[in-house]
Every structure is written in structure tokens, then in C-alpha cells.
């Protein structure tokens, strides 16, 4: 009887450890976004506005534009307006209330550069653009900060899309109260065609751990849309 | 129905003005073909640069670029910085200031350690060259590292944040900083595997902690803040967390002079240490617009 109890105990401990590891493998975050129908873009830009944020403990809430390489690992460039819980930072350095650029490299490093401060209900111009028509480097800028992408990624034959989103990263639930933003003049860049408004876009959400937290609204006449 | 002349003129005038405004609107919305700037409306607020230090020096030392580079590469040579050189222009940078290319011998490619060394060096070179510029990226617009990368040199851009130039960090003595690290380890239930104090301009700290298995009741930001001190007294930090068997769990690094941070984590360790970061998303599904 004692041996049976012991084996049961070992089984329960192992089960809990396995469950813990499985749950721990997913970071908690959610995005709700609009993305370009075009799958071969060379840049993105928008006037990004955050109207309300209200992050939870250990959480940042942000509104951003993104250029993402869906072919090559994690390569991604993001220009954002983040607000974070007191003491919480993005990538250990970018602080609450300052614009930021973040890159995800193919080797798995998340890096950020912090821009100037921002206030709610105000538009801030963010841009992301392939360095030249033959370059695999993508540059980004917002609020007087700049950041290039990593050495690998954004190859010319890769699938690349532009996205505009509301995101909550960290924490365990959606923001405590109101959370809304606006992505204005949502635009794409194509070498040969130049800049143009994203006229064909779809909406989607991802939710890991909690969410979705936002509704993505229809595109207005100037290419802008709300996430609320 | 008849329309009098004045009404017709008014209508034509209105139509002309409307067409002109419409054309301008379309031009603004489409932007130039190869113009760097995309369609945008007026942005009225450009914000202000932040600072991690509580004290700002209104004027910098104004060193020449060669003197600043010599000072910084000498200060960081033991950590792996080999050399640095001014680059006249940096594509994609936020300002027209020159950039800097920094050669690092780490054999870690574009990993957190060589990126951190580059960020530290770029910031210290900028603040040593500074006279009265408001932000460090007005002195050095951006940077890049060239890592020796085990015989296959790899170049990675650094960019630059927009933060106050001339931040003054109180930089306690190396002994005091090492003592602080040991106290932090005790408070957080960690073991110090190694601790190193670097001096790019003031002080920066690189620590490897060993973390016991299991759930922790602190976050990486709390650990970072404890190592930085309150008020923050160092210009940079590199925190490496390893498990009891030596497995690498997480690396977090920051350089306050250019507002740059880098983060790497083994699967699930970001959640364990509440390390907040942006997320790559799966390829979206084709939902209706």
C-alpha cells in the first residue's frame, strides 16, 4: 500500500512538472491586427495612435506597425507606442511611454531602441523599409529612434506582409479597462511602385494565454482603422 | 431649370477647388515613388528624449573621434572590443550624424553579448565626442558590430535610440558594485557564477547568475533594477541566467547611453522570468475583411 501511494505521488509530481513545462513553453500575449493582402512588400508606414492602454502587472500594451518575414525564422521589425506596468520594460530596456523599435532576429534575439516620449490621443509616424531593392536589411524609425533588422532575414523571395495591431504582451489577462488605438494612413512600400495605402487587407487575431482583447474595425477612406 | 452666372461661377470655383484639394490629397496619400517618407498626416508632437540617469551634464568633453575611439576600445578590450572606426553616413539612421563600426571578438555572431558590447561602445564614444548635443544620436547616428564569429565575420546593425546625451552615472567602486551583486544574489536566492565591472565611460556590470530549478517569485525587470541600483548608478547591464547544470536560460542586456536593449531566452524562460518582448506571429489566416 505504501509503495502504491509512493508511485502515485511520483506520478502526480511528474504530471504536474510536465504540465508546468508545457504551459511555460507559451509566453502570454495577444495581437489583433490588420495585414496586407500583398505577400511581397518592402515596407510599411502609418500614423500610430494610442488612445488608451491600461496594462496589467508585468504587462505592456502597445499599438504598432510591423513588417514580418513569414519564410525565415522569426525575422520581424516593429515600430510601436508601448505603455507598461510600473517597472516593466520591453527587451529589458525600452520604457513605458516612449516610442520604440523592436527587431526579432533569425537567431532569436529580441532587440529594442527607445525613441522619444509620446502622449495618448496623438499620431506618431512610424516607418519600416527595405534598405534597397536588393537588400535583405530592413530599417525602421519612430520618434527619432532608428533600428535596422538583423543580418539574416527579409530575403527577396520570402513572404513578407505589413501589419498594424494592438498587442498585450506579458500578464495573464486583457488590459484592466479601456484599450484602444488607431493605425492611420496604413501604407505599404513596393520597390517599383513606391508608397501606397493598403487597400486590400484582412483582419486576424492571435491569443496565447489570454485574449483576444481587441476588435479590428473597418478601413476608413484614408486607409486608417481602429483597434478597440 | 436655369442657373444664373454667379451661381455657375461659384459652382465652377468650388469644383475646381475641390479637384485641386482632391489631387493634393491623393498626392499626399500616395507619396512619391521613391520618397523615403510614406503617406502621412501632420504629426504635431515629437516627444522628448528620456534618460535613465538622474543627472545630466550640460556639456560633454568634446573629444575628437579618434581620441574617443581609443579611450573606449582600450576600456572594453578585455571584454572583446577590438577596434572601432567612424562611418561617414549610416543608412536608415534618424539623424545626419556619422555612425560607428565596432569590431568585436566574441564568436557569438549576433548574440546578446557582442550586441551589448557594441551598444556600450557606441554610447560611450558618442558621449565622449559630445559638446552640447541633446541626444547621443545627434553625435553618433547609429552603429554596427562586426563580430569575428569564429572565422566568418558577421555584420549586424545597431541603430540608436533617442535618449539624453551626457547622462552621469554615479558609478560606485568596483568593490561596491561586486558587493551589490552578491547582496542581490542573496536576496533573490541566486548564486553568482561570475561578475565583471566594465568602464566604457562610467561603469557597467556583467553578471552570470545560477538559478535553482522551479518557480521564481521575481521578474527579470526586478532583478535588473536591483543590479542597476536606485537611483540607477551604472550605464549598462548584462544579466545571464543559467540553470544548476549550466544550461543557458536567459540573457538580458541594456545600454542606457543609446537606449538599446537585447533579450534572448530558451523556450518558456521568458514566461518563467516575466521577460516582456514583442512576438512573432504565425502566418495569418485569410479571414474576411
What features would you describe in this structure?
The complex is a heterodimer of chains A (228) and B (289). Chain A has 228 residues and is mainly beta. Chain A has 1 helix and 14 strands; from the N terminus they run αββββββββββββββ. In chain A, strand 8 (138-142) and strand 9 (145-148) form a beta hairpin. Chain A is globular, with a radius of gyration of 20 Å. Mean pLDDT of chain A is 89; it is low at 8-26. With 289 residues, chain B is of the alpha+beta class. Chain B is 29% helix and 21% strand. Chain B has 6 helices and 11 strands. In chain B, 48% of the residues are buried. Classes of the chains: A mainly beta (228), B alpha+beta (289). At the A-B interface, helix 1, strand 1, strand 2, strand 3 and strand 4 of A face strand 5, helix 5, strand 10, strand 11 and helix 6 of B. Strand 6 (110-117) of chain A pairs antiparallel with strand 11 (260-265) of chain B, so a sheet runs across the interface.
Put the structure in a nutshell:
With 228 residues, chain A is mainly β. In chain A, 10% of the residues lie in helices and 47% in strands.
Largest interface, counted with CB-CB under 8 A? A-B, 100 and 89 residues
**Oligomer kind:** heterodimer
Give the rounded overall mean pLDDT of chain A. 89
- Quickly count the helices of chain A: 1
Helix and strand content put the structural class of chain B at alpha+beta
The residue ranges of chain B in which pLDDT falls below 50 over 5 or more consecutive positions are 5-36
H/E element order of chain B: HEHEEHEEEHEEHEEEH
Amino acid at each position: 500500500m505504501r509503495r502504491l501511494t509512493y508511485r502515485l505521488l511520483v506520478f502526480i509530481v511528474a504530471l504536474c512538472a510536465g504540465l508546468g513545462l508545457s504551459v511555460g513553453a507559451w509566453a502570454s500575449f495577444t495581437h489583433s491586427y490588420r495585414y496586407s493582402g500583398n505577400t511581397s512588400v518592402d515596407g510599411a508606414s502609418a500614423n500610430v495612435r494610442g488612445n488608451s492602454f491600461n496594462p496589467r502587472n508585468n504587462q505592456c500594451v502597445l499599438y504598432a506597425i510591423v513588417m514580418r518575414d513569414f519564410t525565415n525564422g522569426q525575422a520581424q521589425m516593429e515600430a510601436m507606442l508601448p505603455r507598461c506596468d510600473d517597472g516593466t520594460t520591453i527587451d529589458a530596456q525600452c520604457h513605458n511611454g516612449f516610442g520604440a523599435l523592436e527587431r526579432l532576429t533569425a537567431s532569436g534575439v529580441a532587440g529594442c531602441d527607445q525613441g522619444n516620449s509620446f502622449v495618448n490621443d496623438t499620431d506618431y509616424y512610424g516607418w519600416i523599409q527595405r534598405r534597397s531593392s536588393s537588400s535583405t536589411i530592413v530599417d525602421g524609425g519612430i520618434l527619432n529612434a532608428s533600428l535596422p533588422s538583423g543580418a539574416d532575414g527579409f530575403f527577396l523571395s520570402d513572404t513578407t506582409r505589413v501589419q498594424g495591431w494592438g498587442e498585450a504582451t506579458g500578464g495573464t489577462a486583457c488590459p484592466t479597462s479601456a484599450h484602444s488605438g488607431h493605425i492611420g494612413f496604413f501604407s505599404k512600400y513596393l520597390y517599383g511602385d513606391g508608397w501606397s495605402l493598403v487597400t486590400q487587407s484582412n483582419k486576424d487575431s492571435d491569443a496565447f494565454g489570454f485574449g483576444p482583447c481587441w476588435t479590428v474595425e473597418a478601413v476608413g477612406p484614408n486607409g486608417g482603422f481602429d483597434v478597440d | 431649370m436655369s442657373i444664373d452666372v454667379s451661381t455657375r461661377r461659384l459652382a465652377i470655383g468650388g469644383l475646381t477647388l475641390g479637384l485641386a484639394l482632391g489631387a493634393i490629397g491623393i498626392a499626399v496619400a500616395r507619396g512619391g515613388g521613391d520618397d523615403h517618407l510614406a503617406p502621412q498626416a501632420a504629426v504635431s508632437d515629437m516627444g522628448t528624449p528620456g534618460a535613465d540617469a538622474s543627472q545630466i551634464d550640460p556639456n560633454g568633453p568634446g573629444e575628437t573621434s579618434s581620441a574617443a575611439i581609443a579611450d573606449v576600445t582600450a576600456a572594453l578590450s578585455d571584454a572583446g572590443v577590438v577596434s572601432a572606426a567612424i562611418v561617414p553616413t549610416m543608412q536608415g539612421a534618424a539623424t545626419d550624424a556619422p555612425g560607428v563600426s565596432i569590431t568585436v571578438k566574441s564568436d557569438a555572431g549576433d548574440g546578446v553579448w557582442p550586441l551589448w558590447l557594441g551598444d556600450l561602445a557606441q554610447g560611450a564614444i558618442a558621449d565622449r565626442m559630445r559638446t552640447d548635443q541633446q541626444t547621443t544620436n545627434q553625435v553618433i547616428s547609429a552603429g554596427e558590430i562586426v563580430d569575428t564569429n569564429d572565422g566568418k565575420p558577421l555584420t549586424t546593425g545597431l541603430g540608436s535610440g533617442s535618449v539624453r546625451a551626457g547622462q552621469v552615472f554615479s558609478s560606485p567602486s568596483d568593490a561596491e558594485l561586486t558587493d551589490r551583486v552578491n547582496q542581490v544574489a542573496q536576496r533573490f536566492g541566486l548564486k553568482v557564477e561570475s561578475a565583471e565591472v566594465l568602464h566604457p565611460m562610467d561603469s557597467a556590470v556583467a553578471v552570470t547568475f545560477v538559478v535553482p530549478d522551479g518557480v521564481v517569485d521575481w521578474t527579470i525587470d526586478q532583478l535588473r533594477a536591483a543590479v542597476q541600483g536606485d537611483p540607477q548608478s551604472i550605464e549598462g547591464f548584462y544579466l545571464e541566467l543559467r540553470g544548476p547544470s549550466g544550461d543557458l536560460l536567459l540573457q538580458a542586456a541594456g545600454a542606457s547611453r543609446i537606449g538599446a536593449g537585447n533579450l534572448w531566452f530558451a523556450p518558456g524562460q521568458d514566461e518563467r522570468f516575466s521577460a516582456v518582448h514583442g512576438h512573432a506571429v504565425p502566418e495569418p489566416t485569410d479571414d474576411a475583411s
